[in-house]
Write a structure and sequence with these properties.
Order of helices and strands: EHEEHHEHEEHEHEHHHHEHEEEHEEHE
Number of strands: 15
Helix content: 40-55%
Distance between the termini: 32 Å
Strand order of the largest sheet: 5-6-1-7-8
Radius of gyration: 24 Å
Strand content: 15-25%
Shape: globular
């Protein structure tokens, strides 16, 4: 049986959300971001005509489009609207994978026998538009890669169906930049070899691509040929991410405890950024020597920045620790998680801060977490083993 895989993508999602809240913003250039020193999280099609793009410094974007109105991002609003769309899709589709806050994959294989895959998907998209007010694009094909590329080519609202026999004619003229996951370095390397469109990449020998680029080379060759057997993974939302440490000997050394907390936050925040989660609730737990356990939590703006999360965690600890007794265990927990496509809080942080985190994470990815850590988190002479536990719905 031929697979039927749909990719659905909410058009200019952040912009569409803020326009639902304020209709005066309709039809004018909009930039959603975090102020003049921040970066563009999303922009309207009116702003894109001037060359404005996501992840561009807002200062540069305003030089290109001086009349654009900059709106601060509201992750609470975005999360709520994303959940509305998710519920509609889950109610009507057997297998759903939510790949980000505004993107979904659907496996509707076999539905053509009863209803018609394209007809079903089109009516689902219309339901989303009617019930949420959010515009959405989709593409239907035999696999995730082709459907995702086709959605991008059809935007806005250009809903495409790419049959199995049309995959190569559809992909061939496109730039290799369109292949999901190609990355800047691979794009540059392939371009230097004269491989600039998908047809050229598809015609390269498999052994050559694997020899030049390893496993990634083989994956890119498969995608260029429209081959992708990856399944649609059923959607399960993570509820929280947490870690705790039990001391070998009960302690009253508060400086060392705070140092440990900083180290714990750094590790969890790094994991959040790698998995693309943003928490809205932070919690601290203390267990005293007599086994009394006390928790405390804050509701916070969505972020996965170390420096912001550390501030909240240390504030919570200071408010929580009041008995002046020896401590047996400390733990931290981040919850109220939402999916995001950005590594840190793009609505709050400056270009310089984003660049710093991206550089640190790149070093950690290559050399390990301990390659770059805060001095404040290394006071302890012997670093404790930290076990991470996660709760899944």
């Amino acid at each position: 049986m031929t697979r039927a895989i749909v990719h659905m993508d909410l058009d200019t999602f952040f912009v569409s959300c803020v326009r639902l809240e304020n209709s005066d913003l309709n039809g004018i250039p909009i930039i959603v971001g975090g102020g003049e020193r921040g970066v563009v999280a999303s922009c309207s099609y009116e702003a894109r005509r001037f060359g404005v793009r996501s992840a561009m410094p807002i200062r540069m974007a305003l030089q290109l489009c001086p009349d654009a109105k900059v709106i601060k991002g509201d992750m609470e609003l975005f999360s709520r609207k994303s959940q509305e769309v998710t519920q509609i899709i889950e109610e009507k589709t057997p297998i759903v994978e939510k790949s980000s806050i505004d993107e979904f994959y659907l496996d509707i294989t076999g539905m053509d026998k009863f209803y018609g895959c394209y007809k079903f998907t089109n009516e689902l998209a219309q339901s989303i538009i009617k019930e949420t007010g959010l515009p959405i694009s989709f593409a239907l094909s035999t696999n995730k890669t082709v459907s995702k590329i086709a959605t991008g080519e059809g935007k806005p609202r250009g809903n495409l169906e790419i049959s199995e026999r049309m995959i190569r004619p559809f992909l061939n003229p496109l730039s290799i930049r369109k292949i999901p996951g190609i990355g800047d370095q691979n794009f540059k390397s392939l371009s230097q070899l004269g491989i600039r469109n998908i047809e050229k990449l598809a015609e390269m020998p498999q052994t050559y691509m694997q020899g030049m680029f390893g496993k990634m080379g083989l994956e890119l060759w498969k995608k260029a040929n429209g081959i992708d057997n990856n399944p649609v993974q059923p959607y399960r939302e993570r509820k929280s991410i947490s870690t705790e440490h039990t001391f070998l000997q009960d302690t009253i050394d508060i400086d060392s405890v705070k140092s440990l907390l900083i180290n714990m936050v750094e590790k969890l925040a790094y994991q959040l950024r790698q998995e693309q989660w943003l928490p809205s609730v932070v919690s601290v737990k203390i267990r005293y020597a007599n086994f009394d356990t006390e928790p405390k939590q804050y509701k916070i703006p969505y972020t996965s920045c170390d420096h912001v999360l550390i501030k909240y965690i240390l504030e919570l600890f200071d408010k929580l620790y009041h008995r002046r007794m020896r401590i047996r265990l400390v733990g931290i927990r981040f919850s109220g998680l939402v999916r995001g496509t950005y590594q840190i809080n793009i609505f709050e942080d400056t270009v310089e801060m984003m660049a710093l985190y991206q550089a640190m994470d790149k070093i950690k990815n290559r050399f390990g977490f301990e390659a770059v850590i805060r001095c404040a988190g290394t006071i302890l002479k012997s670093k404790p083993k930290i076990e991470i536990t996660s709760n899944i719905l």
